[in-house]
Amino acid sequence: MTAELRLRPVRDDDLPCFFAHEQDAEANWMAAFGPEDPTDRQRFDAHWRRVRADGRIVARTAVVDGEAVGHVVAFPVDERTEVSYWIDPRRWGRGHATAALTALLRELPQRPVHARAAKDNRASLAVLRKCGFVVTGEDKGYANGRGVEVEEWVLELAGD
Q: The dihedral of CA 95, 155, 60, 24: what is its sign?
């Protein structure tokens, strides 16, 4: 199981860790819908400037034993709120994604909340299901991490 995980606002010194996490080819393939060019640091920095400047976005760093192990984000898509997360691939299988998403969801007063995952990303689907999300539909789109169109599940966490 996971060590004690906590969330905090994203800081400047988290960004090199996030960038390093995105350099893993397996993680990009698994996530499917990641950055067009994970090695483009200027585009990465511009992305995070936009994320951190937008008051509608809730971005948090997941920290375990003082180390940034990833991030979770809630962001608007049209009238909906979607969530996403990225955990250091060296830390996969320890419950960090589930703990981070659970903590983020406690911060979000609005429901429903939505998420998406490639249909073959069983690990991410398991995280979302553990957090109460259910599949409500499907979609497909071009996945930068795979260079092809990929089918995905659309999931929802309904209100109480």
A: positive
